[in-house]
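Hi R.,

As promised on Friday, here is the backbone we talked about, encoded as structure tokens. Could you run it through your design pipeline when you get a chance and send me back a sequence?
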């Protein structure tokens, strides 16, 4: 899996603070410099003032201003299972690589058995891996070798069958029905900072699946560079909130 930040609002925290100050100022923020807009906020310099205001907004649950800062991520090589989970979030915008227009006719099925094109879950190779609703706890080496062999044979065979169907003239959009849910997709998606915190609440949590958790953690790392005061506050004070229904 690879996650990159493609584009994002420049000076996101200036935008967030300006939007928030708009709510409580008689003057029009469009006519004022950022320093003037922030004049009454506590802090020795503009960075300290931003930190004060952003911390205050997040603490009070005043999340609207965080919708003005938008980020676009590119994600490579997640399973269709992970894609199905992330695309349930309705306030994000997605583009997903098509399996109607992109066919995997030149992929070697033996490479698929080695991990190309289909994501290999850690439980296929790690005897100590514990997942949700698992029938047993840790297993011995022999059992995990058997698991891995079945998994690899199965994905290899499904890609062989897929390519055979393509050779027999079946359209990719129909031949894809035999491919596994672990088949990789690349995706571009855009979210605002508020939504990203909500996604992280649900998908970086311990009860989320390992793959979407990893993807979300990587997005949070990138967000911490892009919008640092917000995502540092989130990491320290808000992550792992319990019983949240929405941000
Ligand atoms: C651990 C885990 C297990 C899950 N298991 C399943 C499962 O087995 N089956 C399944 O189908 N889904 C499952 N989901 C998906 C889950 O039910 C949500 O559909 C998904 O996480 C989207 O989140 P959201 O509901 O917060 O909506 P989002 O689209 O992220 O919207 C954000 C917020 O906006 C508000 N909102 C958005 N749309 C509406 C609306 N129409 N009406 C009212 N409020 C709205 C809500 O406050 C919502 O929390 C699972 C999620 C997790 C994290």
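Update: got your reply. Pasting your designed sequence below so it's all in one thread:
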């Amino acid at each position: 899996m690879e996650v990159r930040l493609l584009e994002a609002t420049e000076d996101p925290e200036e935008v967030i603070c300006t939007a928030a100050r708009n709510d409580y100022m008689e003057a029009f923020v469009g006519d004022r410099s950022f320093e003037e807009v922030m004049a009454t906020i506590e802090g020795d310099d503009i960075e300290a003032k931003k930190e004060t205001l952003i911390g205050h907004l997040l603490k009070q649950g005043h999340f609207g201003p965080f919708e003005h800062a938008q980020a676009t991520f590119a994600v490579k090589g997640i399973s269709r299972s992970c894609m199905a989970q992330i695309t349930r979030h309705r306030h994000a915008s997605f583009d997903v690589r098509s399996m109607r227009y992109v066919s995997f006719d030149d992929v070697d099925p033996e490479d698929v058995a080695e991990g190309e094109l289909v994501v290999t879950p850690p439980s296929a190779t790690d005897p100590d891996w514990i997942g949700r609703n698992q029938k047993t706890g840790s297993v011995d080496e022999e059992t995990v070798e058997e698991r891995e062999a079945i998994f690899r044979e199965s994905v290899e065979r499904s890609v062989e069958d897929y390519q055979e169907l393509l050779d027999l003239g079946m359209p990719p959009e129909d031949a894809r029905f035999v491919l596994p849910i672990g088949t990789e997709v690349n995706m571009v998606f855009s979210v605002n900072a508020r939504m990203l915190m909500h996604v992280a609440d649900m998908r970086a949590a311990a009860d989320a699946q390992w793959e979407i958790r990893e993807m979300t953690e990587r997005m949070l790392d990138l967000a911490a560079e892009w919008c640092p005061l917000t995502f540092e506050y989130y990491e320290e004070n808000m992550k792992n909130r319990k019983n949240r229904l929405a941000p």
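One thing I noticed while checking it: The first strand starts at residue 2 and ends at 8.

Thanks again,
M.
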